[in-house]
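forwarding from the other thread:

> can someone predict this with BV8?

sure thing
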Amino acid sequence: MDNLEKLLEKAANKLKAAKRVVVLTGAGVSAESGIPTFRDAQVGLWEKYDPAELASPDGFQANPKLVWDWYEYRREIVRNNKPNPAHFALVELEKKLPSVVIVTQNVDEYHRSAGNKNILELHGRIMENRCFKEGRLLKENELNHSSIPPRCHCGSYVRPGVVWFGEALPSNTLSEAFTHARNCDVCLVIGTAGVVQPAASVPYYAQQSKAFLIEVNNLPSALTSIMNVFLQGKAGEILPKLINLI
Ligand code: BV8
């Protein structure tokens, strides 16, 4: 049995015995769906822009049309692709174990469309629209498309329903994620560079509560040093193998 198989078995045994599992996912879990990660170099028109610049209120105010177009480009990619085996393996995990909570940094809603039920979306949803001034969620028929970005009936621009850099995460969702992390037996961290805060604190709360930490990533991340098991590889390949052992 090679080293990866031994590690898979060790991780599967811990998951099998777990009463409460928290799964933290990042852009890497959707990479095999064709959704570019934040780490991936931006392509084409977006090559010369830093995502963290575009994904911010200042970036939007400086150039609302550019940021709106970037989100429309990303929405099209999400619409034209679908969940991959990594997402479906997590649906199986939720079915097999007594309690699994998916805490995701992703805004593509692929965990929901794959079939997971217990999901905490820390950074919002890319398909949703909000009034830039009021923050209110807007229905499609409330958007005035005579400009780009569209405008809310209050006259302010419409923005995507995601949490930008420099904006607070939804407080209830975040505190629920931290509470689950503090009370879990196993924390499974998949496809995240572990850089963006406060999301990247979830595994640290699990560690403080003596949970067993497992990471799935094709490269080491900022979190790998605190992991009990690091399963190196693509999430779409590793997760089905891992879940099949449970
Ligand atoms: C906030 C939505 C405060 C938008 C996103 C300490 C504490 C608090 C804040 C900070 C702090 N330090 C710094 C900050 C500020 C900032 C921050 O974290 N900056 C970073 C750059 C240092 N944080 C914030 O601004 C947050 N807000 O704290 O506000 C506050 C409080 C009160 C009042 C006002 C303000 C808000 C952060 C949320 C930003 N929004 N998304 C959008 O999508 O457009 S973050 C966005 O980037 C993603 O959602 C995701 O979270 C992040 C990218 O991270 P990853 O998911 O890790 O993806 P990445 O591409 O980086 O890496 C991919 C990984 O997958 C890699 O490891 C790769 O190896 C791996 N991989 C690739 N392919 C595969 C794979 N793994 C497996 N299989 C594969 N096939």
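Residues 26-28, 31-32, 37-39, 52, 55, 105, 107, 123, 162-168, 191-193, 195-199, 216-219, 221, 234-235 surround BV8 (CB under 6 Å). thats all i got for now
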